[in-house]
Amino acid sequence: MGGRRAAPSLPRSVAVGGAPVREPAGLPARLAAAEILHAVIDRKRPFDEVFGAAAAGGSLAGFDHRDRGLVRLIVVTALRRRGQIDDVLARFVERPLPSGAGIARAILACATAQLLFLDTPAHAAIGLAVAAADRRARRYKGLVNAVLRRVAEHGPAQVAAHDAPRINTPDWLWRRWTAAYGAATTRAIAEVHLNEPALDLTVRHDPEEWADRLGGHVTPTGTVRTTRRGAVDTLPGYSDGAWWVQDMAAAIPARLLGDISGKTVLDLCAAPGGKTAQLAAAGAEVVAVDVSPRRLRLVEQNLSRLGLKAQTVEADILAWQPDRPFDAILLDAPCTSTGTIRRHPDVAHLKTADAVTALAALQGRMLDRAVGWLAPGGTLVYCTCSLEPEEGPGQVARILAGQPVARNPLQPAEVGGLAELISGDGDLRTLPCHYDTGDPATGGMDGLFAARLVRQ
Q1: pLDDT tens, 366-382?
Q2: Which CATH class is domain 13-162?
Q3: Per-residue b/e over 360-392, b at no fewer than 16 CB within 10 Å?
């Protein structure tokens, strides 16, 4: 995968033995990238959480948009291409590094990502990696230098020989997807995961006008898709509340509730608020519930920016009890998020098969409670951004057998005529390889499941 090369950071001065020493330009960004990758891979923390904390008051606090973008690009590429990077490094590191050398491994991985996938000149990538090792893992400084020189010389040939979709997909996911969707579709999904996705926006009004202003296009489902990069809050329309970021697939479930103007709608597991905004913009009286106070604040902040209103409730829906039934309910249940790997490549390395079982059990309990809060004749849309059958069709089959609900099948017109998005049972099943435009930069969508149920 090619990448855009960012301009280097300005040099900074650091004090060594009382005398200021000018550190190499670009070193702070490389150090930050290695620290963030180390936290994700070795400490099993989600990338967005680590990056957000670093930007709020950590290693990225003093960075401008350009340098933050560079750090993000390096780390996301190292995660997206982790299988290839590990394979290349394994050929040149004679003995596995000890468990305490996580930051050294991260420095190597970030530099390898730059050398092999981001078109960074060898002297810059190697020199900055050695400087980073000198600062954070001095005993491995010589090893970092020697290994990266071999990577620069021999790595491109090894990458050319890789089966990139396969080697970058963890075995457990490849096996599960092959069983669920077949070998060809699994490979198509994995191919999409190799590319940085476009930016998808849900706009309040005039999607064609905003697509023109942002240099994008309107998808058949009404999402504005643009390949513009950079900080989202600097784009036209952000400060005016004209749109919000929401993947093409993620924007569909709320629309499946139909005309909800004037109706009471319960949005469960509402954060970060894209679906809440859709419901409020459609004229519903919305109650948005989420267990996380931090994430619920994101919902409130988004609603404020957009000029929309909804009642927010901080609660665990397994313990909470509303004081009335609702005309419609949207349950976007916690899941393994394996349908979002193209946007969040850390998911492939943080989730396990055991997580599928645990989360499926949680989803079942949430779905049972949600059905009980639905008014007779009311509509419930259950959705997850997972590709795993247990978190989608398996839940619907169970609820249909044990609760007073019936499936209301989707029609192609509800998804912009994209009939491939509708399963044989009439549920929504989007795959990352769907909406193939012929250009990896403008095609694809998140993998998502949704079923529409009516209370009998």
Answers
A1: 999 999 999 999 999 99
A2: mainly alpha
A3: beebbebbebbbebbeeebbbbbbbbbbbbbbb
Query: What does the angle CA 271 – CA 369 – CA 49 come to, to the nearest 5 degrees?
Result: 25
* Separation of alpha carbons 192 and 348, rounded Å: 14
Q: Which two tokens stand for residue 231?
A: 């900080």
Q: What tokens appear for 3 in the block?
A: 């990448």
Biggest CA-to-CA distance, the chain: 77
Catalytic residues: 385
Do 13-162 and 248-455 agree at the fold level? no
Angle among Cα 217, 449, 274 to the nearest 5 degrees reads 55
Q: 2: which 2 tokens?
A: 């090619």
pTM over 0.90: yes
Condensed to tens digits (0 to 9), the pLDDT of residues 167-218 reads 999 999 999 999 999 999 999 999 999 999 999 999 999 999 999 999 999 9
Q: Which of 70, 164, 78 is nearest to 117 (CA)?
A: 78
CB of 421 closer than 8 Å to CB of 429:
yes
CA distances (Å), origin 413, targets 249, 256, 421 = 15, 11, 11
User: What class does CATH assign to 248-455?
Assistant: alpha beta
| pLDDT digits 0-9 by tens, 113-143 | 999 999 999 999 999 999 999 999 999 999 9
Nearest Cα to Cα of residue 427 among 362, 371, 383, 391: 383
Task: Give the domain ranges of the chain.
Answer: 13-162, 248-455
